[in-house]
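Notes from the pairing session

We agreed to fold both candidates in a single pass and log them together. This is the raw record for the first candidate, unedited. Please don't reformat it; downstream parsing expects exactly this layout.

Candidate A
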Amino acid sequence: MSIQFHVLASGSSGNACVLDVGGFGVLIDFGLSPRHLAPRLRASRLTWEHIDAVLLTHEHTDHWQPATLSHLAKLQLPIYCHRDHVPALDRGSRAFAALASAGLIRHYEPGQPLRLHRDCTCLPIPLDHDCAMTCGFRFDGNDWAVGYAADLGCWRPDLARLFTDVDLLAIEFNHDVAMQLRSGRNPLLIRRVLSDLGHLSNEQGAALLTEILQRSEPGRVKHLVQLHLSRECNRLELAQKAAQEVIDRLHVALAIHTTDQKRAGTAITLGVESSRAVQPLLPFVP
């Protein structure tokens, strides 16, 4: 069975990824409008017909868009979210009531696995972020696993334990701390980003990667996807350097894929041998 992971967008201007499990497509977040999502799906050789289920990580509007929720309602796609997300979705889109009345709003609970497909179980994992409920996910099949955590201000040992032995690890490398501090941004925004409920720095992402690799069977983790890079307070080469130092120190073979807010990335197919070479999805636009 072919398993592919596609990043359509990742960053403060919108987030959306697709996990394709043998033709069963799971859309993780929908933080772009249908008009912007459609060409990114096409660039990934996907269409809306490839999407069979939708997962929402949290209610911040770079992770869901009212117009896209309406489009999902027209397509009659099931949307999995936490109960704490419901008030924002209900206020933000008239389509929510139609989805709910059709039984297409389905609730998940952290720590309780969801069976999305015969070869895809999803475990919601609570994350530390300044939202009512933010979750990452671990996806498991018969012989594959994917870990996904996009918005979090700090990480705990339980997260590293739950992401042990995944084939693909998609985690946040949001900012360089020095760039953040001298960015000239509003001090409240800087404080928020650097807090334990904000976003992971390159160093924090590297530390989480280290912990997961050390817990995992040698050679098991083959792909690192660096998510949610800040356009103002990070650079592709800084995020990649932080990860590469971990790879060199632990002497592991791991492909690095660095996301770009502006464009969809190339598909990552699980089961294909990786090299240690850095493999950016596309050049980062600062």
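Candidate B (folded immediately after A)
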Amino acid sequence: MSKLCIALLLMCAHLSAQSQQRIFLYPSAAEVTIKGFDTTAPYLDYYPAKNTSSGRTAVLICPGGGYQNLAWEKEGTLPALFFNENGIDAFVLKYRLNNPKQEGHRYPDQYNDVTTAMRIIRSGAADWGIDAAKTGVMGFSAGGHLASMATTIHQQGDPAAADPLLRFDSRPSFAILVYPVISMDTVFGHRGSRNNLLGLTPDAALVTALSTENRVNAATPPVFLVHADDDKGVPPQNSIVFYEALKKHKVKASMFIYDHGGHGFGMAPKDPLLSQWPTQVVQWLQRQGFR
């Protein structure tokens, strides 16, 4: 059994004891749910690091699930607890979803959730002991696409805004994208994610605009990419085209493509090779000055 596997088992054992705060993204009066579809409004679960030093790094985690469901533990709480063990605060995002019958939410609801979440974290950074300039985003699969939208489609803060949240910039300080959906095209994109985000017959211009490799520019923050070469669900071309766009615009980036793993391996605690990527992320954050 790998060291990471043992560590994750210990984390799970102490999960219920972990200090945690649930933060709803919108006022209770806001009309953000669909009657008969949503069971809860969007929220953040906050997992603070064990150390109490000020100016900590924080990461907003977007679990995957094809914009239809959320792999909450494998791609949410377990990564959050791993970051906690490494002195990093974590927030797991419950964002709005859809289903094949198109009874739920489509773009821009999910994008609004991730940008609102980033602004909430920044607005409370001082109280939580977080450095707002060291606040990034992480996403897996379709959650990786959502994180990539936050990474490439920014909303600038307006110091004069009446809404205090709108005074904060939505641009993350860094991004960690794990087997991400990037393209909304059907050549190598994930059709299920596209259908749930954009509908069954999306406008071609929207498909292009939300294929996030097209949105990379010099203002894009540093990015860490992880993928498996044998991923049949979300082919590694998604990470590759994003990486190429980052390099075109001289954005700092690292990409690891493993020779195995398929899709949805999460923290890969039982695989001695794949399980190295979380530690590589922490080391990368240190090299970028975010630790």
